């Protein structure tokens, strides 16, 4: 690690106990991961078969049959194993571990003698390995396998999967590289870069770092590898609808990565790539690469991100479009893309602990990600609209990809296992440290063990941050420990944090605040208690004036949550509601609503059609406006009360 | 003709001389029709070849080669001939007539001995005639041939093309019908219905009426013909992207036409169908059919039409979607669909002279249709957006079909020849009559000869209606003539018409106004002058509150013209402009602007980003708003000053 970076607290040293998040993590453990196991084994009635385990068994010689599924079907098994590993990190589960070990054995048998591992090519297109990197996801699947292997080794101490992954990575290193005779190619869907960095960190083997650097450096270079391989393989195309081999920006291969200044193409690919780049830059101190990460970050968060932390303004290619183009109803804003944005944010935070990174991480986490999964853990959003009119989605094909209710498991489901592995590893996102400074990025109730000042310090966090903006920290240390507690002041509270230490108000100097973190350095005593609270003002958020889809509109935010109007509370035709800058907003906790939600009420005006008549357009319209009370709920909780309209942005009179 | 209907003035009895329209008609005569002739003969440099004349020559045995083009390529030649016929109706042109006669000879030779005529099936799929009505446009092409034939016979008195058409129609009558052994099918793209009615009117042959009735009655009946023929031909599909054989509402075949209450599917198909239905209902007095026409009309104009007279809310299938779903930026609103709406409106007007039909006809004509063609007659809009941001159209695929500039001729260009035939026959849309009442539907400068009260009355109309809302009528009659002049009061003027007769103000009784027409019955003297003028108030139009895309917005209209903001006048980011209900709107004629345009100026507020900073969203935004003068031009004139943003609907503060 380059000396400027912060480090994560190892996952096994973190126990989450949080009013808001524990339930989601429990869902992942008790429902999502077991359910996904059934799905991977084609035992979910009514769901499209996954065939992923079968593919592996066939490749392992244990069963007979043909490959079935997407070219990246293997990655589902790896993501499942990665989530399993994080769960095992948090709590032992011998039954689950045994199942995982069995799968790992099958994976081992499916691995080819030279280390290659991919059931699609092994079973369906033997001899065509590495002939279509632009489209065929071999390196992407390898990356997910490596991530699973690293997580599983950390969690269980077992090296079997790690050995498989290393053998595969070593094989990849014999195929790709700048040396003569090796392919000058790189992955069509970025993932292996960040995975190789993990593998490097866990093994210390420099070749993995070098391979990662090769892939990062090679992307977008001329002559263009995708064009060359396209010609070489005779112009065959795997995905007919997307010109992956030619639309170079789709996989961010239109320019060398250091020259990319705007977030282009498939959103998940971009943020996965940036995650790998940031990790590599952190390790190598490559300033130009770090600068490229910063530029892409800035472009995303200042010009191409939804207020919910969603990214990807169009369905075609699940892609970014251009600055300030943020349609609320035709967008994609894939759950996986927001998860990738969180990965990217975390790596940037590690490089450079600035609250702006954590702010975006929090925005994506508390809104798009948690919205992505239903409270039963079995239904998921892939697309995360900010405005939905269900009957229109059904009929107007411009909205065909937008679903007004969470969907069941897909045959190849990218988002559900991604949610699972993120939430199962949420403990890694709360803190990071550098030397004797502990940065608190997220206010999530938890207990950690941290080695500092020559001893193990236990730090307990009690939080009702989500709804009330409070967190309490308690230090447990055998002897007094000198360290700095750096507490993030979220962007939304505009610096108005109130801190108490041991019950006494703690007034901090502006000099103590660096990049959005209040730093408190002390010789902490066992039992010391630090309270921090943020004013939970209801915020009337506006979009940058260049966003044509939000002008004249307001979005309501309170704490980390963005709010929305739903038909269940407000009736249909949500667009007829208008808020006013002058009207009061009130809030209360409705404990009976979906297990408890902080609700916001607003005096609003509703334009009615009562006196309008049958004309479609008129110049002498008498719009009867009446005063109504609008009710808003947090965005993440939408679509839990039947099919109905939803809208985040509401018209506002000034 | 059923006794309630009005009749058109024959085209050869109408001469248009209008400040606004004459130039467009001249363009059709001098540019569009000659240019299309070059295009049909593949002589337009840089344009995709049409091959339409070559296809006919090959089918006629005059040339060797293969069919090339769309399955409906023949219809381009027919539409051209129809436009030529209307031009010949207005003024002799021996050179043009000679060229047309030559084409007609080729068509005659291409006709098969049994009367069948379609170069696609004759050359490319012989033996597959009538096996794919859902997709393959044979009856559509037949319809256009018939329309051309009827027009050409009327204009020139020559029967050659009419004989060809009758022979083809007779052949179709042997193939389709309720008798045993005949196909129970109907056209996948409606057109032949209205054409058969024209053929019936010109020939008086009842079999054409019966065939039309068969097609109208058969549509949507069960068992479903499209499904049957699909199975019968082994499930082949002609257009892969559209499920024409199965998406029955696409071609309005989801229900018997009398049971259809909403405008569904492909917009052009729907309005062509309605035109035929209305014509049939007028002739037969079929009340249920007329009622179906009224229902579909009402659904379109009160729930599914743009303020510009555009129809078709989505690009996919160029189709209607659902009530009040009128996106301004992703819609299709094809020029041809608005032309079809004008056809439908005219037939409804003939059935039932109500100003509401003429209002819609005028709206479509003065806005979408005339916008469809550039001032050079060589560039055309197929898609007519109400809001355009050119850089977004280039990158965000949700807008890929929206072009910010008029396009050159396509290989198979539907809209340009449709504009040509409509404008060349505009004289048929101005008046209609019943007994001794002459209805004035459009205020277009013209001179007509009308047989009434036992003599030929010449009625001259001088109009500067488009810009100033005035029209003057002068009666020329050898002897006094008793008749009723019914003058339409446009919906936009809210009944505030001022009439002078012989220079004296004429006060009319409310009883004289029927369905939006002031009826003045007199013994008119030679030289009588009637002036009518309408207040050209600048109207602030609002959309029905159920339209989510127009709520909180205003569209400016003056006279028949809907206005728009353009970047050329107002700079980029048009969405940052806001009008106020309280601010004054002024207007002036800018004679230097695109040959002269009435311009509207509005005091407006522009939201600037100067003090905003780099955040994408903020709760403490200081939006600097400054007062600016917005300039609006008529919608039809947009996209003539380079590539730029355009918007019809403007945010409005109340």
TrEMBL record, chains A, B:
<keyword id="KW-0378">Hydrolase</keyword>
<dbReference type="InterPro" id="IPR008928">
    <property type="entry name" value="6-hairpin_glycosidase_sf"/>
</dbReference>
<dbReference type="InterPro" id="IPR049174">
    <property type="entry name" value="Beta-AFase-like"/>
</dbReference>
<dbReference type="Pfam" id="PF20736">
    <property type="entry name" value="Glyco_hydro127M"/>
</dbReference>
<dbReference type="GO" id="GO:0016787">
    <property type="term" value="F:hydrolase activity"/>
</dbReference>
<dbReference type="InterPro" id="IPR012878">
    <property type="entry name" value="Beta-AFase-like_GH127_cat"/>
</dbReference>
<protein>
    <submittedName>
        <fullName>Glycoside hydrolase family 127 protein</fullName>
    </submittedName>
</protein>
<dbReference type="Pfam" id="PF20737">
    <property type="entry name" value="Glyco_hydro127C"/>
</dbReference>
<feature type="domain" description="Non-reducing end beta-L-arabinofuranosidase-like GH127 catalytic">
    <location>
        <begin position="13"/>
        <end position="427"/>
    </location>
</feature>
<feature type="domain" description="Non-reducing end beta-L-arabinofuranosidase-like GH127 C-terminal">
    <location>
        <begin position="540"/>
        <end position="651"/>
    </location>
</feature>
<dbReference type="InterPro" id="IPR012341">
    <property type="entry name" value="6hp_glycosidase-like_sf"/>
</dbReference>
<dbReference type="InterPro" id="IPR049046">
    <property type="entry name" value="Beta-AFase-like_GH127_middle"/>
</dbReference>
<dbReference type="Pfam" id="PF07944">
    <property type="entry name" value="Beta-AFase-like_GH127_cat"/>
</dbReference>
<dbReference type="InterPro" id="IPR049049">
    <property type="entry name" value="Beta-AFase-like_GH127_C"/>
</dbReference>
<feature type="domain" description="Non-reducing end beta-L-arabinofuranosidase-like GH127 middle">
    <location>
        <begin position="437"/>
        <end position="536"/>
    </location>
</feature>
């Amino acid at each position: 690690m380059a000396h400027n970076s912060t480090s994560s607290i190892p996952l096994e040293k973190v126990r989450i106990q949080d009013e808001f998040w524990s339930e989601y993590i429990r869902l992942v453990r008790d429902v999502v991961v077991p359910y996904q196991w059934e799905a991977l084994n084609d035992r979910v009635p009514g769901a499209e078969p996954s065939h992923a385990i079968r593919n592996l068994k066939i490749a392992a010689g244990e069963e007979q049959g043909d490959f079935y599924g997407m070219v990246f079907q293997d990655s589902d098994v790896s993501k499942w194993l990665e989530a399993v590993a994080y769960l095992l990190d948090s709590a032992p589960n011998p039954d689950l571990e045994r199942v995982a070990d069995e799968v790992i054995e099958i994976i081992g048998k499916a691995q080819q003698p030279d280390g290659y591992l991919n059931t699609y090519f092994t079973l369906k297109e033997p001899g065509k390995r590495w002939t279509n990197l632009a489209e065929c996801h071999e390196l992407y699947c390898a990356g997910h396998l490596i991530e699973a292997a690293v997580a599983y080794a950390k969690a269980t101490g077992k090296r079997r999967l790690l050995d498989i992954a290393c053998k595969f990575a070593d094989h990849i290193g014999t195929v790709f590289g700048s040396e003569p005779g090796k392919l000058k190619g790189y992955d069509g869907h970025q993932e292996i870069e960040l995975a190789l960095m993990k593998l490097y960190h866990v093994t210390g083997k420099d070749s993995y770092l070098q391979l990662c650097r090769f892939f990062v450096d090679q992307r977008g270079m001329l002559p263009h590898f995708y064009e060359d391989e396209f010609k070489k393989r005779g112009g065959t195309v795997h995905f007919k609808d997307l010109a992956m081999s030619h639309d170079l920006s789709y996989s961010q291969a239109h320019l060398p990565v250091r020259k990319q200044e705007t977030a282009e193409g498939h959103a998940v690919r971009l943020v996965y790539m940036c995650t790998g780049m940031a990790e590599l830059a952190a390790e190598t101190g490559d300033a130009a690469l770090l600068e490229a990460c910063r530029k892409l970050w800035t472009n995303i968060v200042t010009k191409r991100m939804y207020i919910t932390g969603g990214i990807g303004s169009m369905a075609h290619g699940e892609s970014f479009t251009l600055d300030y183009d943020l349609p609320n109803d035709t967008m994609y804003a894939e759950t996986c893309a927001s998860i990738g944005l969180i990965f990217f944010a975390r790596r940037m935070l590690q490089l450079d602990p600035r609250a702006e990174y954590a702010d975006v991480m929090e925005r994506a986490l508390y809104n798009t990600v948690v919205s992505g999964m239903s409270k039963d853990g079995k239904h998921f959003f892939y697309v995360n609209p900010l405005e939905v009119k269900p009957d229109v989605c059904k009929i107007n094909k411009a909205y065909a990809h937008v679903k007004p209710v969470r969907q069941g498991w897909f045959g190849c489901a990218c988002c559900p296992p991604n949610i699972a592995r993120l939430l199962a590893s949420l403990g890694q996102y709360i803190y990071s440290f550098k030397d004797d400074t502990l940065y608190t990025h997220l206010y999530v109730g938890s207990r950690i063990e941290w080695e500092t000042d020559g001893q193990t310090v236990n730090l307990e966090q009690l939080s009702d941050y989500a709804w009330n903006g409070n967190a309490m920290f308690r230090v447990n240390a055998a002897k007094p420990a000198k360290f700095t507690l750096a507490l993030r002041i979220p962007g939304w509270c505009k610096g108005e944090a109130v801190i108490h230490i041991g019950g006494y108000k703690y007034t901090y100097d502006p000099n103590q605040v660096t990049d959005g973190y209040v730093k408190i350095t002390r010789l902490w005593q066992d039992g010391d208690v630090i309270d921090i609270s943020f004013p939970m003002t209801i915020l009337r958020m506006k979009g940058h004036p260049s966003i044509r889809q939000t002008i004249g509109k307001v979005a309501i935010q309170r704490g980390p949550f963005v709010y929305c109007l739903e038909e269940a509370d407000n009736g249909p035709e949500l667009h007829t509601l208008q808020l006013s800058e002058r009207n009061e907003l009130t809030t209360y906790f409705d404990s009976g609503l979906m297990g408890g939600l902080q609700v916001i009420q607003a005096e609003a005006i509703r334009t009615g059609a009562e006196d309008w008549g049958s004309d479609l357009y008129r110049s002498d319209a008498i719009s009867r406006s009446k005063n109504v009370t609008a009710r808003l709920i947090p965005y993440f909780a939408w679509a839990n009360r039947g099919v109905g309209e939803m809208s985040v942005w509401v018209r506002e009179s000034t």
